[in-house]
Design goal:
There is one protein chain. By secondary structure, the chain is mainly α. The chain has one domain (about 20-165). About 70% of the residues lie in helices and about 5% in strands. It has helices at about 25-35, 40-50, 55-60, 60-85, 95-125, 130-165, and strands spanning about 20-25, 85-90. The protein has a two-stranded antiparallel ribbon. Helix 1 packs antiparallel against helix 6 (about 130-165), helix 4 packs antiparallel against helix 5 and helix 5 packs antiparallel against helix 6 (about 130-165). The chain is elongated, with a radius of gyration of 18 Å. The chain starts with about 20 loop residues before the first strand and ends with a helix. It binds fe (ii) ion. Fe (ii) ion binds near residues 79, 109 and 151. Fe (ii) ion binds near residues 79 and 82.
């Protein structure tokens, strides 16, 4: 089964030889984007109970198709906002370690988006009266959610580390 493993291989983190510019985060903006994204939270809150049990999912399949397409669109917006306002090139200040983490996390967006786009395509191809297809889809979705939640967690950690770095706290 295909898992949505995110790897930094080939990511922008390997391109630090391009000079002194470093990728940094606008910690306040990035945090605002996450806090303000009520639509994304609402969608995930609607999808979670429906997909907790395969039979429930099967009973709500047309609704799930709509929700998955809404989730794809929301994530497209979410990643674009983060990339437009949450990350920036910093010529001077940011620490090399934070910059590497920022590069890795930003480079996960295309993989995450490709995964949710595939899922929103797949959901409409599933025969909801075939339990094995429903189960398979739910496993794929759960796997995506774990990777996405980890990504979000790591970005929140990066926000905190960047704030500490600005304040001169920590190592
Ligand atoms: Fe992100």
């Amino acid at each position: 089964m295909k898992q949505f493993e995110i790897s930094s291989e080939g990511g922008a983190a390997t391109h630090s030889e391009t000079g002194t510019r470093r990728l940094a985060v606008n910690a306040a903006f990035l945090r605002d984007i996450k806090d303000d994204n009520q639509d994304l939270k609402m969608l995930l809150d609607q999808i979670t109970p429906i997909t907790r049990h395969p039979q429930t999912a099967a009973n709500h399949w047309p609704e799930l198709i709509t929700l998955m397409s809404d989730l794809r669109d929301q994530l497209a917006l979410h990643f674009s906002l983060e990339e437009a306002y949450g990350y920036f090139d910093d010529a001077v200040d940011s620490s090399p370690q934070l910059s590497v983490t920022a590069e890795v996390l930003r480079s996960e967006h295309p993989f995450l988006f490709a995964a949710i786009r595939d899922l929103s395509d797949q959901v409409s191809e599933v025969c909801s009266d075939r339990p094995e297809e429903v189960n398979h889809f739910i496993e794929q979705l759960d796997s995506f959610r774990r990777v996405f939640e980890k990504h979000e967690e790591n970005e929140l950690e990066l926000i905190l580390d960047s704030l500490d770095d600005d304040l001169g706290v920590g190592d």
